[in-house]
Amino acid sequence: MLDFSTKTTSTSVFVEVKDQGEVIGLARAYGDSISMMEVVHTYQCSDDLIDISYEYPQVMDGEDIRILEVNVVSLSKEYQGKGVGSDIYQKLIDGWSKRVRKPFVIIPEKCSVSGSTSDMAMRVWESLKRKHPSSGLCVVVDL
């Protein structure tokens, strides 16, 4: 049986997964409210974030948009393709939801100007997009 632990700080969420005491996966995401001006200059998916800001104004704090950017996800190869990655992302969402208690947008590192997201991780993003409203790579988590 897998053991998930989640640690949330004022700016991040960290998830660790263990199987029989051995770490088999981890993830870290950073959250913040970011001005739309900064979004335009910082994120490759800025058009999607702008669309979301109009369609889901509940993700906004005045002129800022609440974002949780997934920066690191690692999972041992033998656990890939078994739903564990989806569980990790859900734990990130749950952890940040408890922290901010407001709707937000979760984005992959691929949205950053210099970021990247693996093909395997993109499969998880596609799964998230089937469960939540989205635009491009950006997924709305509406509480």
General description of the model:
It is built from 4 helices and 8 strands; from the N terminus they run E-E-E-H-H-E-E-H-E-H-E-E. It is of the alpha+beta class. Strands 1, 2, 3, 4, 5, 6, 7 and 8 form an 8-stranded mixed sheet that branches. Helix 1 runs antiparallel to helix 2. The radius of gyration is 15 Å and the shape is globular. The relative contact order is 0.20.
Query: Low-confidence parts lasting 5 or more residues at pLDDT below 50?
Result: none
CATH class annotation: Alpha Beta
Class from secondary-structure proportions: alpha+beta
The percentage helix is 25-40%
CATH topology: Aminopeptidase
The tally of structural domains comes to: 1
Approximately how much beta-strand content do the residues carry? 35-45%
Separate helix tally: 4
Q: How would you sum up the major sheet? A: 8 strands, mixed
Mean pLDDT: 92
SSE sequence, one letter per element: EEEHHEEHEHEE
Question: How many strands?
Answer: 8
Please state the second-level CATH architecture: 3-Layer(aba) Sandwich
Tell me the span between the first and last alpha carbons: 29 Å
Shape designation: globular
CATH superfamily: Gcn5-related N-acetyltransferase (GNAT)
Which radius of gyration do the C-alpha atoms yield?
15 Å
List its salient traits.
8-stranded mixed sheet; alpha+beta
